[in-house]
Amino acid sequence: MQKYLILFILLIFIAFNSGCKTQTKYYYPGTLIPNESVAQLRIKKTNFFGKVAVHPWFQLFSKEEEEWNTWDINFELEPWKSFPNNFEKLWSLEKRSKFKDYKTGDYKKIYQWGYIAKNRIFSFMGADGGKVVMEWRGDEAERIKRILIVPQAYPYIFDYRTWPGPNSNTYIAWVLKKAKVSFDLPAQMIGKDYYGLIGGGFTTTRKGIQIETPIVGLKLGLKEGIEVHIFGFTLGLAPRWPFIKTPFNNIKTLKPKPMK
Question: Residue 128 — φ and ψ, nearest 5°?
Answer without folding.
Answer: -125, 35
